[in-house]
Structures are given as C-alpha cells and as structure tokens.
C-alpha cells in the first residue's frame, strides 16, 4: 500500500464528522484537501477551513506504521504541531487502522485488510490486544547489539565448520554442530519474529507491497531542508491560513493603509560603477560597515573561494552586482556582496596570499597583493563594479529587508536573523553571539540548537526581547518588527567583550566597563535558562516531556518559560521547587488537552472556538492575541500550582508594557 493511496483514502473523509479517540473531545472535520500545496485543512466546524496541516506529517505517521506496525502519533511527530490528536483522529478513521492504549498513551495499529467502515473507529480488544501488547514489550526490549553478537558467534562457528568439511573425512560431528547452529538461528529468528508488532504476520504483506525505504521522497529546496527542525533543532512553525483575525484584534483601516500603501516615491536607488580603489578607501575610513559580528564561521569563505574571486578580477571577468543601503550619515551597509568586498579588502591589505589558482599562471600562487606587478595591481584597483545604493531613509515599507530575502547569497538565502544582524549591527549582535555560545544556553537546550544561519542567536533574541521589552502591550505589526525593535533598543547601549576571539566558543566575557544593561539582561536570561533546566530536568521547552531530549525545541515555549522564570524572586523559585510535581503535571496536561481554562482570549472568535494553550504555542504564535494568551496561561498555571504571582517587568522600561 503506497502513501499516495493513503492520501486518497483520507480525502474520502472530507466533510465527515471524525470523533476523537477520547470521547470527551469534540469531533473534527477535514474541510479541504489541497494536493497542489500538499496540505489538508481541519476544523471543528464543517464549513470553515481553520488549520492548515501538511501532508508531510501524515507521511511521517504512515512511515512509522509501516516500519513498526504501530505508532504513537505524539512520538512520530516529535511532539511538534498543534493539536496532535487531529492527525491521530484522521488515521484512526481509516478502515485498516485500529486504536489501543499502551502504558496510558494512545496508539494506532496497522492492519493489512479492512476491519471496520471508513469514517468509523475501531478499538483493539481481547486476545488480539493481549498478543499485541506482549509483542510491543518484546519489541522495546529487543537489543540490536545482542542480536549482532549472537549472529557473529553463529557465523564464526559456521566458518569453522566449513573449514572442517574441507579437511575431515568424517562428517558426523560436523552434522551435530550444524544442527546446534540451526537451532540457535531458529531461536534468534523466533525472538525477532515475536518482537514484530503485527497480527497474523500482516505486516509482512504490507511491507512486501510498500517497502519503507523504496518510496519516492519529495525533493525539497536547499532552503527548506536547512530550515527544517531536524537541522535547526527548533520546531517547525505551523502555518494557520484561516481567517482568524477578528475586527477587535485586526489593524484599523488607517493602520492597514499605513502598512500596505507603498511610499509613492518608492525607494531612492542610485546606480553607480565605482572602482575597487574607491571601495578600499571607504573601507579604510570605516565608511562601509563590514559587520564583523555578522560574519560567523558558517558564512566565511574558504581560502580557495577567496583566491578564485581575485583570479576572476585579474582576468577581467564580470562580478554580480553589489547592493548597499546608505545610512543617514552617508555610511553604507552591505546588503549583498559582503564576502566579496571583505575578500578584496583583505587581499589588498596583504592578509592572505593567492592559492590553488587554475586559470592563471602558476607564478601567481603564493603571491600577496604587494608582490604583484604594477599592471596587476592596477587591474585590481581600477576594476569597476556595478553597485546599487539604496537610500535607507526612503525605506518606509521595509523593502530593504525584502531585498535581503530575495537575494541569493552563496546559493542560500539569508535567514531572518542574519538579515536582522546585518540591518541592526552593533551591541545587540555581539550580545546575542555571547549568549548563544554560553554554557547555560548550550546545556539548557541540550546542545540541540544549530548555530548555522544564526538560529541559536534568534532563539536567544526571542526570549531576550520579552525580558527587555515586556509583553503586555505588544502592539507591533509583525513579530519580526518586535525582535528588530529589541535589537535597536539594545544597540543604544555599549558593550565591551574580553577575549572576543573566543566569542563563538563560549570563552569570552563581558568587560566591566560595559553598560549595566547587559549585566541585568545576562543575569535574568541565564536565571531563566538555569531554572528551566532544573525544573524540567533537562527536557525544557518541549511540548511533550515523554519525547525526551531528542525532540526539537518549541520557540514559543522557550520564550514564555525563559522570560517568566527570568523575573522570579528567590522565594518564588523556592516555592516552585517545592511544588514541582504539581506544576509539571498541570503544565503538561494544559498542553496535551489544549486547555482553555487558565486565561481569556483577547478575541471573541478565539474564545468561542475554545482555543487553548496548545494552540497558543503552535499557530499564529507571533500575533498579539496568542502572545498575550500564552503568557497569561503560563503565569496562571504557576499561580494555581504554587501560589506565586509573577510580574514580568521589562528591563528597558515601559517600551512594551503600559
């Protein structure tokens, strides 16, 4: 059975009421199936699109079923995605899927034939359930290492017997040894067979028709792959395409006009063709900001690539256009071309010599700029580039940021945080590099978050922004604007770093002559991290505690937990520690049940639809309404279970809180 067939079967469920395995949970509807965008839409109401969910999560569940025979949806999806009972409910209504409980958790089970009607539920019971649970126990206790050891022992003995067959005239003892080995192999096979979670060997029939590793896998773009939670360590965002913004939480007409109506004059852009000597002079007088804090190890060119660029210039080959944003003081920010400009400047400063050149004479290899002939030096100094200089003051609609997004740098587009770091370079970028490399951050996130594309810096910024600016009067048009605002506010303060060369290795320190702000933010941020690590015993920031440290981190949970814990007093931390079991239980249940009992939504629509805590940490997570609900819920869970009342006071004053 192929996954395409599974999709066709699921599509037949569109419009049908699908009762959850838990009878207390309201039924859901699949309202639309869109093969073009590879998504399906789930709602509590038959005529609304509601949540968009990707086909990929259905495929992940199906792969698990074919591979193991059974599946816990929560574990198959690593605790990611909103309302994990939705895909679980969808699968349970397929005629070849049954459901059961194992160790108190809901599971689904794959059959080779139809055992109930499409659109209905079937629970596995009686003797079949007993056999299945026994096989699951065997499956979980099966040791690949033990099997490997036994197989090696048998193979070595078989090789010994084969040698004896060639040399000994009598085969009686050999026959006895072979019988013994066959018995050992039979016992090993029975052990493995009894650990295959299936009834009547049905899984063999399914696997023959659909080998789990022979399926065609959709080819993803480089950007999609490197942005996936498998690589970043941060849970994928779930898009919500429903019309979920009520009049009471949407922008006013005038505000919409302000954000949507482009500046009539547009961006003011000059097109120039300067020579490299002019660029060199601007760099020498620090009139082009090279963004040293933006250049982390994953973005710095190799020596071979740098040499090839100089080789291209010496050969007179054209280079792609450069883009600069011109600030009010006349300085330029490099929008595109940072590594090319840095390479030329460093070479003209004699900071590296040419190597591994393929097209020029071998005499150029090992040569510094100062050692070139007068003619070659002129070729570099007088080389003209094409540059587009954008007036930063004319950018009223964030089009420079959009340009960052559109430009393909080194084959991979810049991440959101890389763009922020380029646009708002200064103390904030240095501070984020410092925090993201700290032992406290690495330990509390189980070294799970990738530093590539500044994903670790962005995660730190997400919590730091709430610590610095608060949350109660969040009134930004976008979440990105909120994070950018925090960076701009922090940039007004001065930070000095000791041992800056060790900044990305966690070996740097904030100098005593830095502004007090950075010591306040560091203390609070690290308190939030350390206390979260202690309370959740190393599994903080995950939507489910049972999935363990391997699951990706939920950014919304990271924000709310760290920012809230950052504002605790010693007495409050002591109270939480004394009531830890009660708090953890209530917190976990609030997520699992999508509880709506701890806070009120600042939206009539959300309130009427009984959206809860799980929704607020999964969908529309950057909107004001979900941010308020998320923080209020977490704070009220703490209040109910420990009696404490947390007041999040923004370190930078009332920029965000009334």
UniProtKB/TrEMBL annotation:
Domain GmrSD restriction endonucleases N-terminal: 287-424
Protein name, as recorded: GmrSD restriction endonucleases N-terminal domain-containing protein
InterPro entries on file: GmrSD_N (IPR004919)
Superkingdom as given in the UniProt entry: Bacteria
Natural source organism: Providencia burhodogranariea DSM 19968
Entries under Pfam families matching the protein: GmrSD_N
């Amino acid at each position: 059975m192929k996954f395409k067939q599974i999709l066709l079967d699921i599509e037949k469920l569109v419009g049908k009421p699908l009762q959850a395995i838990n009878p207390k949970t309201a039924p859901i509807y699949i309202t639309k199936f869109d093969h073009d965008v590879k998504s399906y839409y789930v709602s509590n109401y038959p005529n609304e699109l509601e949540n968009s969910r990707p086909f990929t999560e259905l495929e992940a569940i199906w792969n698990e079923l074919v591979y193991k025979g059974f599946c816990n949806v929560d574990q198959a999806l690593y605790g990611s995605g909103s309302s994990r009972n939705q895909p679980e409910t969808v699968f349970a209504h397929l005629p070849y899927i049954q459901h059961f409980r194992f160790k108190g958790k809901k599971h689904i089970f794959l059959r080779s034939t139809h055992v109930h009607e499409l659109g209905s539920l079937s629970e596995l019971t009686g003797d079949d359930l007993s056999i299945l649970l026994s096989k699951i126990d065997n499956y979980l206790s099966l040791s690949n290492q033990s099997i490997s050891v036994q197989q090696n022992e048998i193979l070595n003995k078989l090789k010994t017997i084969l040698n004896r067959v060639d040399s000994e005239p009598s085969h009686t003892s050999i026959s006895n040894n072979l019988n013994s080995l066959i018995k050992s192999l039979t016992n090993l096979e029975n052990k493995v067979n009894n650990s295959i979670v299936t009834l009547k060997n049905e899984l063999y029939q399914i696997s023959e028709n659909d080998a789990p590793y022979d399926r065609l896998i959709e080819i993803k773009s480089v950007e999609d792959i490197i942005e996936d939670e498998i690589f970043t360590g941060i849970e994928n965002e779930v898009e919500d395409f429903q019309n979920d913004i009520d009049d009471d939480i949407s922008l006013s007409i005038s505000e919409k006009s302000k954000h949507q109506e482009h500046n009539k004059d547009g961006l003011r852009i000059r097109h120039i063709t300067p020579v490299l000597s002019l660029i060199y002079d601007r760099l020498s007088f620090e009139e082009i900001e090279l963004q040293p804090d933006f250049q982390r190890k994953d973005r710095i060119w190799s020596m071979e690539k740098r040499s090839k660029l100089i080789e291209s210039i010496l050969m007179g080959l054209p280079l792609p256009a450069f883009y600069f944003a011109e600030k009010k003081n006349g300085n330029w920010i490099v929008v595109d071309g940072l590594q090319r400009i840095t390479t030329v400047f460093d070479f003209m400063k004699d900071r590296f010599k040419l190597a591994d050149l393929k097209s020029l004479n071998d005499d150029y290899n090992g040569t510094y700029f100062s050692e070139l002939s007068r003619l070659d030096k002129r070729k570099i100094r007088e080389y003209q580039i094409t540059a587009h200089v954008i007036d930063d003051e004319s950018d009223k609609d964030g089009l420079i940021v959009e340009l960052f997004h559109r430009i393909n740098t080194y084959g991979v587009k810049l991440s959101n945080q890389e763009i922020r770091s380029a646009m708002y370079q200064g103390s904030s970028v240095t501070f984020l590099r410092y925090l993201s490399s700290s032992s406290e951050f690495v330990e509390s996130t189980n070294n799970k978050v990738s530093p590539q594309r500044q994903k670790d810096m962005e995660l730190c910024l997400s919590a730091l922004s709430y610590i610095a600016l608060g949350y109660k009067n969040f009134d930004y048009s976008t979440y990105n604007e909120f994070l950018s605002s925090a960076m701009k506010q922090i940039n007004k303060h001065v930070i000095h770093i000791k041992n800056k060369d060790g900044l990305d290795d966690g070996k740097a320190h904030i100098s005593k002559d830095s502004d007090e702000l950075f010591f306040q933010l560091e203390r609070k941020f690290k308190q939030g991290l350390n206390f979260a690590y202690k309370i959740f015993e190393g599994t903080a920031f995950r939507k489910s505690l049972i999935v363990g440290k391997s699951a990706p981190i939920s950014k919304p949970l990271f924000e709310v937990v760290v920012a809230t814990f950052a504002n605790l007093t010693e007495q409050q931390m002591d109270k939480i520690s004394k009531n830890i079991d009660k708090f953890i239980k209530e917190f976990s249940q609030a997520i699992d049940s999508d509880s709506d009992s701890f806070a009120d939504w600042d939206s009539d629509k959300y309130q009427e639809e009984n959206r809860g805590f799980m929704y607020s940490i999964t969908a529309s997570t950057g909107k004001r309404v979900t941010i308020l609900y998320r923080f209020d819920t977490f704070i009220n869970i703490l209040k109910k279970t420990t009696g404490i009342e947390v007041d999040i006071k923004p370190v930078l004053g009332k920029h965000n809180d009334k």
